[in-house]
Amino acid sequence: MKTVEEIKAAIEQAVPGAGVEIIPNPSVCGQHSLRLSPQTATAVATFLRDDADLSLDFLSNATGVDWPDKEVSEKIKVTRTVTKVVDGVETTAEETVEETVKRVVPGCLEAVYHLFSVAKKHGPVIIRMKTQNRSDQVRLPSLTPIWRSAEFQEREIFDLYGIVFTGHPDLRRLLMWDEFEDHPMRRDYVEPDDFEYEPTAHDEVLKRAEAQRAKLQGASA
Amino acid sequence: MTPTSFVTDQNKLPGWNRPPHVEPDGEGELLEIAMGPHHPSTHGVFRMDVALDGERVIRLKPVFGYLHRNHEKIGENSSYLASMPFTDRLDYMCPLTNNWAYAIAVEKLTGQEVPERAQYLRVILGELTRVVNHASAIGFLIQEMGASGTPLMYAFKEREKILDLFESLTGARMMVNYMRFGGCRVDATPTWLASVRKVLDGLPQFSDEFENLLRGNEILMARTQGVGILRPELAVNAGITGPMLRASGVNYDIRKVDSYGIYDRFKFRVPLGDHGDIYDRFMIRLLEMRESFGIIDQALKDIPGGPVMDPKAKIRGFRPKPGEAYGRIEAPKGELGFYLISDGSPNPYRYRIRPPSLINLTVLEDMCLGANVADVVLIFGSVDIVLGEVDR
Is there a single domain that holds both residue A119 and residue A217? Predict the structure, then answer.
């Protein structure tokens, strides 16, 4: 079994400009993964399946991961010029201050695939792809034309995470019903208020029911 | 039927090879029926939207989600240990292998060691679970062919004995919640091990009688041989695992490939099928049951003394270091995997189950095309699924 570095080198030799990136895994099992760029993912995946040394003919697991926007606060040292009045005389001095800077790391959706080889009995090789954001640019190439086992699993990712797989032959919701609108596995998913199923709403529930009814009427008007 | 039911562009699917005889002959209308969600053959709530030309199946689309409770979301909102009893409810026919797969994934994430005795107990319980699952799967097959009740109860008779063993060890017949990260919850007494031996001694006779019941029945042979054939190339490409894959002649058993736990210490063979039809799938299950008897026998002979929990294992305040791990085992139905991402908090950041039952259904339509509608029930039964795991 090749290491991830060797697999990366083999991919870059076979698919020029593949843009593969190694994502290290700090856990003890050491299952490092390769991030493919969506543009070349289909070519790389075909290579991984058909290459004689790797022959990763078995896609075991395909799943999504949601990474929402994250606010990171970092402490950085800033040097600035400060004017001070010492004994009636104005002097300028350089001063180093520690400042906390808040920065927003943009979120993304990620699709993770675990590949094994039935022919060579090795694995796993983990490949992942990420979308540009979580709202409007959520398209990734489907790997179903290469491994059929992604057929239902990509439908599940589409259903629960909202990644749209281009080239998937039958991209419909798998577990939720067709009319459902949200993606329940996202980290910021809020469960719908289901008070309307209460037969005799009163007090607190009645207030929520009326607020929701007003909201729905406002939305339809 | 929803208008979106039959939108698949099947030509894009790898391995897709529509047999020529399933094209409608143009005479008469297609009959579209919904098999399920409440159909006795579906082992739960599951729907197949089938289009028929006379008796022949022209199209078949499975519809999932009737038992969906978003287990993965619940797992992400609760601590690592709190998901352990919930794994029992995935494939409720074999809770112990679900426990085992989850424990293996967490142990990969944290690097915990499992004591020898716990490893042996896990093997004994895992193989007993396999016997339970395969015996009931064969019992259901005969039930689906119309022999209602009696043959299934014949399989359940042995299942009941094994569930009694589970109950005396773990306190529950099915919802066992037995394994822990770094071992097992309670130790087995010598009396318990002796009663396993007693049950084990009766099992070979049961499997011989059960095989006679299968092979001596002309109806069964006629209805299962050559029906629902799955080609090995398609089986590998579609991610089929477990007895279904091996019935198609592909030698891939995770117990041999990964030799997780201590499976490299046991001598057992991997039965392979020739034709990949329903008959092969059930004979493979029968033969695997016999191999399991051998493994349990060896484990009972070699089981050492000692603790069943890693003394360093933390139960309270369990926070794995950031990282991710994918752990998998050969569950009775196929490859059961857990994919976990930890961000250092007490709850998993991502908790994913790779369900063998769902992925084995990928090829359901391929196997059913051109078959009679009555055979759909049998082909579906031969996949051996539990809806608790399909829908999660």
Answer: no
pLDDT for B4 equals 39
ipTM: 0.84
> Min CA distance, A81 vs chain B (Å)?
40
> pTM of the prediction?
0.85
- Say if residues A64 and A163 touch (Cβ distance below 8 Å): yes
Mean pLDDT of B230-237: 88
Residues B19, B20, B22, B23, CA torsion sign: positive
- We report the CATH number of the domain holding residue A56 as 3.30.460.80
CA-nearest residue to A176 within chain B is B65
Based on the fold, state whether residues B40 and B15 are members of the same structural domain: yes
Mean pLDDT taken over chain B: 86
Q: Does B232 touch chain A (CB under 8 A)?
A: no
One domain for residues A117 and A14:
yes
Weakest-pLDDT range from A141-150, A188-197, A202-211, B29-38: A188-197
Q: Please report, for residues A15, A37, A141, A217, the alpha-carbon distance to residue A20 in angstroms, rounded to integers and kept in the order given.
A: 10, 7, 15, 50
The per-residue pLDDT for range A60-109, each reduced to its tens digit, is 999 999 988 888 887 787 877 777 777 778 777 777 777 788 888 888 89
Beta bridge partners of A22: A34
One domain, residues B178 and B321: yes
Kindly give the residue spans of alpha helices, DSSP state H, lying in B227-339.
Answer: 232-237, 243-247, 254-257, 278-302
A11 and A115 together in one domain: yes
From CA A101, how far away is CA A145, in angstroms rounded? Answer: 46
Supply the range of the domain harboring residue A202: 191-221
Quote the percentage of chain A above a pLDDT of 70. Answer: 95
Q: What CA–CA distance (Å, rounded) separates B329 from B98?
A: 9
pLDDT greater than 50 at residue B192 = yes
Q: In angstroms, rounded to a whole number, what is the distance separating the alpha carbons of residues A130 and A140?
A: 8
By the CB < 8 Å criterion, does B239 face chain A?
A: yes
Closest CA to B340 of B70, B71, B75, B69: B75
Q: Which whole number is the average pLDDT over B376-381?
A: 88
Residues of chain B with C-beta less than 8 angstroms from the C-beta of A146 = 14
Instruction: Return the structure tokens found at A49.
Output: 């399946």
Q: What is the pLDDT of residues A156-182, one digit of tens each?
A: 999 999 899 988 888 888 888 887 888
Say how far apart CA A61 and CA A126 lie, in whole Å.
9
What 3-state DSSP class applies to A109?
A: strand
Q: Which of B7, B15, B337 sits opposite A60 (nearest CB)?
A: B337
CB B141 within 8 A of CB B54: no
Angle ∠(B341,A177,B77) on CA atoms, nearest 5: 30
| Count of structural domains, chain A | 3
* Res A112: pLDDT: 92
User: Any CB–CB contact under 8 A between B112 and chain A?
Assistant: no
| Whether the Cβ atoms of residue B245 and residue B331 lie closer than 8 Å to each other | no
> Does B58 share its domain with B75?
no
Q: Which residues 339-358 of chain B have a CB within 8 Å of chain A? A: 339, 341-342, 349-350, 352, 354, 358
Contact B73 A184 (CB under 8 A): yes
Instruction: Find the mean pLDDT for residues B314-334.
Output: 87
In a 13 Å sphere around the CA of A19, the CA atoms on its Cβ side amount to 10
- Residue pair B104/B186 in contact (Cβ under 8 Å)? The answer is no
